[in-house]
Specification:
11 helices; two-stranded antiparallel sheet; single chain; Defective in cullin neddylation protein; Recoverin, domain 1; about 240 residues; DCN-prot; cullin family protein binding; mainly alpha; two-stranded antiparallel ribbon
Amino acid sequence: MPRKRRAAAEMTSNDGDRYASKRSRNSSSRRSSRHEDNSFSQKRCMTWFKEYTSPDCPDTLGPEGMEKFCEDIGVEPENVVMLVLAYKMQARRMGFFTKEEWTKGLSEMQCDSIQKLQYRLDYLRCLLNDQSTFKAIYRYAYDFARDKDQRSMDMETAKAMLQLLLGKQWELFTQFSQFLDQSKYKVINKDQWCNILEFSKTICDDLTNYDVDGAWPVMLDEFVEWLKGARSKSDIS
């Protein structure tokens, strides 16, 4: 090969090597950048938390902050997924997240931004499909939603939470809600709350497997009696 052509070939080869090396570094840099974006940052998580707090109460996200938070992630405050998120955080009070609760829940889910949490919303919804997890969320909801100054949950709150958790799952929910509307009950205690779930899971809609001598709370015995009476009147008419 003539000297000029050989020098040109060597230059081209060297340029190609340098280009390949540069491309490799850039590619590696992009991969590293993507890795950093996907990794969880405690600092980013806390910076995000502070967007919803005020200088007067920097360690607690309150109702106003919750409203903005729900708007940012595109979820209505009344959506059941917010209850599941509160469960993951083990939040103690409805409408509030403390810094510790926020850190616990979002660290576990590796979420430090709106986009990452939005990506995990389907995962939170899917937790409701697991029977044991749903039961845990249902039991958690009682202490989460009740007034902490009261041992029992007021009826309006109870009906709203039952609608949220059982409204689409329990065929008899509408009738049970009607029963509560006309009943003497003003509150629901924890034993009643837990047994409502068991009743909805085990008793057939036609009540054929209901045992009058079973250990159900009186509230549920009265519901069965009321429902049978309502159905008898419907059959007569």
